Amino acid sequence: MMDRWLHIVGIGEDGLDGLTPATRAVVEAAEIIVGGERHHGLSDAVRAERLAWPHPFDALVETLLAMKSRRVVVLATGDPLWFSVGARIGRAIPADQITYHPQLSAFQLAAARMGWSMADLETLTVHGRPVEQMIAFIQPDARLLILTTGAETPGRIARFLSARGFGRSRMTVLANMGGAEEARFDGLAESWDHDVPPFNTLAVDCVAAPDAALLPRVPGLADDLFRHDGTMTKREVRAATLARLMPMRGALLWDIGTGCGSVAVEWMRAARYARAIGIEPRADRRQMAAENALALGTPRLELIEGEAPAALVGLERPDAIFIGGGLSVAAHDAAWEALKPLGRLVVNAVTLESEALLADLHARHGGELVRLSIQRAEPVGPRRGWRAAMPVTQWSRVKR
Fold first, then answer.
1. How far apart are the C-alpha atoms of 47 and 16, rounded to whole Å?
2. Closest alpha carbon to 354 in 307, 394, 397
3. Which of 93, 195, 197, 378 could bond 387 through an S-S bridge, CB–CB 3.0 to 4.6 Å?
């Protein structure tokens, strides 16, 4: 085992005084300390060479590896492995070369200030990430702790809440927790007007109005929540499609013929850190998909122009593939070849030609072939009757 040459130290607003004696000794013995301006200010009593975060930030690992022969300390806020720099470093440098020194995280401090159980809330970060991604977690009675990205972020989140019928939600901004300048700001989303410090943590106690939008993270959002041109995977079929695709944490979906992006958006909402690439030849539909992704809390949906199989070349291998348009034997073969082991392939068809192709693919490759037929009650003069939607033929299989 190599010597653990790199120490990643969590530090709080109380600076060196908040560290254990052993961790403080590590910092005081450092030859080089890497961190942000705030971290250096909290440890300025230590005499060591100081390095700021590199630009671009992705150069950090290369910078650290160039100093392996020296005593190096990286300072992070709170717990270095909880939405922090330690996790990024740990993905590139083996764990047996790093010693982590955790401090209380902002989440733990905020939960203690609020009197909330950590087991009963969602911990999120929008620090350096699109703020819209928190929208997927706005639900009745949900409690959210959010690491923000600046002084304006609570106001933006207040507007998200109000626009969706959650204006009575209680919001608390906690700043400089554990330090001499700790501050707290309380209010309601609908009337939020506080000026807050840029480095803060936001607590939201979601309260839904009777007309609030209900946006669960299980698949099957109402069709009218999406901007579309009529060509989309409808609600009931979409729920069945996502069940076959099986969204999982951090998994990647290729949505071929993404249209307005309804399947890709629901895939990303259904599992933490799930990712999706939507492949769509029409610019107007890519625009709709981008707008839907922002409105429904999946701003990291990646959209590319093109058609399968040509557009699939060079893409990261997926964990699941949905073909909702542009089906061909060539598109299927290229998609199946790219799919990871245990990957899921789902293909929907509505035309006779596409259905015939699915029947042939099913005969040659197996899997499950089903027909989904949906009927809705609609007015028929003064009475009501069942109106059938176009049936959808669905073929799915798992790569084993």
1. 13
2. 394
3. 378
By the 8 A CB rule, do 398 and 343 touch? Answer: yes
Question: Could you give the CA distance from residue 227 to residue 287 in angstroms, rounded to a whole number?
Answer: 10
Distance between CA 43 and CA 337 in Å, rounded? 53
CA distance 249 to 215: 19
The structural domains of the chain, ordered by start, are 6-104 (3.40.1010.10), 107-205 (3.30.950.10), 223-398 (3.40.50.150)
Q: What is the DSSP letter of 253?
A: E
Please give the structure tokens belonging to residue 74: 């990286």
Q: What is the mean pLDDT of residues 94-113?
A: 95
Positive or negative, the CA dihedral 47, 49, 54, 57 is negative
Give CA angle at 343 (364, 123), nearest 5°: 155
CB of 145 within 8 A of CB of 123? yes
C-alpha dihedral, 120 to 84 to 29 to 109, nearest 10°: -30
Which amino acid appears at position 358 of this protein?
A: L
Q: Name residue, tokens 């060079």.
A: 314
What would the pLDDT profile of 56-102 be if each residue is shown by its tens digit?
A: 888 999 999 999 989 999 999 999 999 999 999 999 999 999 999 99
Structure tokens of 4?
């653990």
Residue 2's pLDDT is 52
Quick check: bond before 56 cis, omega within 30? yes
Average pLDDT for 312-332:
95
Query: What's the count of helices (H) and strands (E) in the chain, helices before strands?
Result: 11, 19
Spell out the alpha helix ranges (H) of 281-351: 283-295, 329-338
How close are the terminal C-alpha atoms of the chain, in Å? 36
Quote the longest CA-to-CA distance of the chain.
Answer: 85
CA distance 25 to 262: 54
**Residue 243 to residues 81, 361, 369: CA-CA distances in angstroms?**
32, 21, 14
Q: How far apart are CA 207 and CA 191, in angstroms?
A: 14
> In this structure, which amino acid lies at residue 173?
V
Percent of the chain that is helix, strand, coil (3-state, to 5): 35, 25, 45
